[in-house]
Protein 1
Amino acid sequence: MATTKHILVALVEDKPGVLNRMASLFRRRGFNIESIAVGHSEMPNMSRMTFVINGPATVVEQVRKQLDKVVETVKVSDITGDNVITRELAFIKVKANSANRSELIQIVDIFRANIVDVAPDSVIIEATGDEDKINSLFNLVRGFGIKEISRTGRIAMTRGGAGPLPVMKKPPKTQAKGQKKATK
Amino acid sequence: MKMTGAQIICESLVKEGVEVIFGILGGALLPLYDALPHYPQLRHILVRHEQGAAHAADGYARATGKVGVCFATSGPGATNLVTGIANAHLDSAPMVAITGQVARPFIGKDAFQEVDITGITLPITKHNYLAMDADSLPGIMKEAFYLAGTGRPGPVLIDLPRDVQQESAEFNYPNKVDLPQYKPTLQGHPAQIKKAAKLIGESQRPLIIAGRGVIISKAYTELKELVEKAQIPVVTTLLGTSCFPESHALSYGMLGMHGMAYANMAVDAADLIIAIGMRFDDRATAKVSAFAPHANIIHIDIDPAEIGKNVRVDVPIVGDVKAVLGELNKLADKSEHINWVRKLDEWRKEHPSLIIRDGESLLPQYVVRQIYEVTKGEAIIVTGVGQHQMWAAQYYWYDKPNTFISSGGLGTMGFGLPAAMGAKVGCPDKTVWCIDGDGSLQMTIQELATIAQEKIGVKIAVLRNTYLGMVRQWQELFYGKRYVATPLSSPDFVKISEAYGIPALRVERREEVSPAIQKAMAEPGAFLIDFIVEPEENVYPMVPPGAALAEVLEEPRKEAKAVKDSAKLPVSNI
């Protein structure tokens, strides 16, 4: 089966074990989670999770339904291919000395990244962007000598008003699970 | 009112209407067990192995439709429950399992008898809880019972540290659950139901495949109404057995690997499949790419994740089977499918699938048939897993709703005896027969002690063929008759049973079968019959693994004579 990259966004209750429940549904099917990002949402006690995974579309859809069944889940959407913005954050610690530091700063400027720490023999670059941008920056500074790199998981959001998840003031009272999707 | 955690658990069980708990105590559950005698309305049944506790709670739940409850202590007690929980999960049986856990300060320190049971049971429970303070217990208990029993039922586990049982907290049992995210869809979507009714009206060769969902939602009359109104033939899955009266003219028995040849042929030829409360298990569909090649598929199920999981579906309807069928019946037109039904009846005549050969030898099929004759089909039949399970499903005629209890999804050998025990405790006025194999029985045979101690009147028929018979059949047919690790030297079950204090008989000849069953029925309490059956008998029909439903192997022997299909009993009222 042809695998494609999928971005799943889940709105879940912020409770212990939820991430484990979600992750285990991927593990069971042998999926490698490419990246994952979890943080607070616009509602108290609700988190939003963004999973990036590679898999056959039908299997991913099956996992999405299973994720939707987790008791703490409000909704899980596959926003792959939607009009979607994705970003990730990276820290790159690069070898730099007084001789080549200014060249490095120029590259960082071009990428609209920041230097957040300077030491006698290294700097830390902070970069935000989609995966391609971070990869390009990484390739350009590689020649200086990479000491350490740390990247967050991707976060994603659809453009405009019609997002996959309605913005709610409080947790929904009568979210009918499943019916909409099943009858599409 | 202030109470200890242990008291809160007991009070909550009383509030939930629990009558019986199957369990074994241990260090981590001592405070809870210490509170139990103050609640005489909670009957505790001490089993002999925690797997038995889970299966008994499962059997109780299936027989009564209520949530079954089991207790086990931490560590090995909890891990012993795992098979039973997985079994309940795959067959959607409502269950609440409460396990002891080491005291909170010891959690995560590899303390004595500590396991991460919430981690272990994560993929095999509908939900689980680690209760970290007594204040949370009333809410957790309320939620656990609600989750277990509603929507698609399933097991819920609560892990209870020892010191939480001793901690005091205010007890106010909530009237409502606070689960904003969990709301199973009960009513089917009207537009989808309309579409389904239209497809049914247009089809020439419709077929209903009914599963355990019909039993769970008690949609017997709704199903019968649809069948009779639109004249649609019915086949059932293994776990759907007894959801529709098998003597009904439009019942064509079980489909699948050991289903009736004509039932499988019907699936193959149908132009419309109406799948009701079933999940297209691979034992039912056989080769899934060749399943119902000419048919549109309407799938009614309460679990949206089941839609499109195994087979493509043309009209999905998510909802409770009873509610959906109620609506569908209003829209479905009266119709007849005379040619289609005639065709199925021809196949039934040409391909008799239930055959008891004449002769001296004691055939397992004959034993099952005699149990049917003597009990007049009124008993609840509970089985283990293996050949005996298939014969019990095939040769007993299920006319009364919810009279067949078996381990379908997990295929758990050893399910029979403890589940029968649970069923009998739940339905003391009904006759409960456990039809088991000698291999399957020996996996949980220690529950004979529970049955004796608690005076549970289960009747046990052991079909002893001194093999792990189903595996032997596969070795015979697909592994060149190399019987590796399947022969069993089974013990003398009569002596074993009597040693446990349960009267027993051995039967080796056909003419002894019926009298022995009658004797068992006359006995007020439990009774065991050790039937020495033909050792190398095979289960037919059989769809070989990897084959399509239409490629069914039929009973090869020449002297075969059909029994069940030739005659028709009057349609019973359910």
Protein 2
Amino acid sequence: MKKFFAQAYIWFLLALLYAPLILIAIFSFTESRVLGSWTGFSTQLYANLFSGEMQESGSLLAAVENTLLIAFVSATVSMILGTIAAVGIHNLQGRKKQAVSFLNNIPMINPDVITGVSLFLLFVFLHFSQGYLTVILAHISFGTPYVVLSVMPKLRQMNPNVYEAALDLGATPAQALWKVLVPQLRPGMVSGFILAFTMSLDDFAVTFFTRGTIGLETLSTYIYADARKGGLTPELRALMTLIFLIILILLVIINVRQAKTQKANE
Amino acid sequence: MKRSHWSIPYVVFMAIFVVLPLLLVMVYAFQDGTGHFTLANISRFFTDSDALGTFAVSLEVAIENTLICILIGYPAAWILANKDLNRSAVTIILFIMPMWINALMRTLATAEIFNMLGIPLGKGTLLFGMVYDYLPFMIYPIYNVLAKLDRSYLEAAQDLGATPWKVFWKVTVPLSMPGVTSGVLMVFMPTVSTFAISEFLTNNKIKLFGTIIQENINSSMWNYGAALAFIMLIIIGITTMFSDDNENAEEALI
């Protein structure tokens, strides 16, 4: 009985959470301009998406490309910078360690509007012309702390002598780093990369303030501009449905693989 | 080279792209258009009934949103973490998954549902949409802490004669506080500072604090915009002060 209520509660919440997403998915199969009016079944929106022929503007695909490019570059830099930083922080002591950890927390606590405005002022102050580079730098600044936090637990679990042993046995520091340290930290680096990538993909406010006036659009800023003009580009519904499916499939694959390795370990 | 020196590039990077920008917010907040020191921007906020009203509404919405998220999210996290009630990992993933879908798109779809149902957009729909956007951020950290909870504490309390109700309030809830703190950090401040989302969910009827910061910056009122951002920074400082267990709270996320 208790279990029944618990399950009912969970599924009720999920139904609420997913209602808008399901709505988008359903209305991706009709051509109407506005979400919510059904004008017959059609896969035209998907066809438009793949042929790049939009009813409104062709810039949606460019926005998707920008989003992915910015997320990939910034998450990669975040992963490298954050991993090196984590090793350094791990070897710091006392007050210094506290200070750097505090520094690391600031971007995570800061709401994105503040991050955006403060970086905007920085680039204005430095007379730095805003565009791809400033957006990427901004995304690195809020993505890296997640990498540091993901890598730190792996460093704590690691035997500190392994790295020294590699050095004693004649490895150069670079070799010891690449062959000993990186393999042990890899799971933390990967989850840090995924977190930084996700934060970048979903970001709106920081991009909005740091993209300048060169007309750089990511998916978020594109949707924002579109909605303010009144009415979303219909192809967005097809795009969102596809993104949703891709994520769903990825998560299922990851989950099944994890379950398998867990079983194998037992 | 000592390995602790490896943190230097990151510290330098953070000094330029995190600390310096925040200092600039402060500098701009206390300057007039010609670069002279002034308190006018700050005092303007306290005499600007529009901005003060927005500020009050933002705090109210944020507090309500945070409380509703805890009330709805805590039981959900507890059920998800309880192996007797929930065996499948899929349901947990289902709760996290909406976070990967663009928030603006989800918000617009939510607003559309209200339109279809004929519900006028306003305070109620704003709150509903906010809960909808931020609930996963409350559930996930609480779930993380509860799932890692050492169950022998609960059994010990039971063996010592505590009723299930008492075990829950005296053992489970206190031990899960880092998760709740982290959830509050991820819901409260982002709600105050949100922009775009509130515009979409209320048809521009209700503005939140983030929106007026954005409007001022976008219309080149940098100094006043910076002053508003500075006021928010102070509030952030105060809220994080309350959650003294910050490190645990941050780690609940991962």
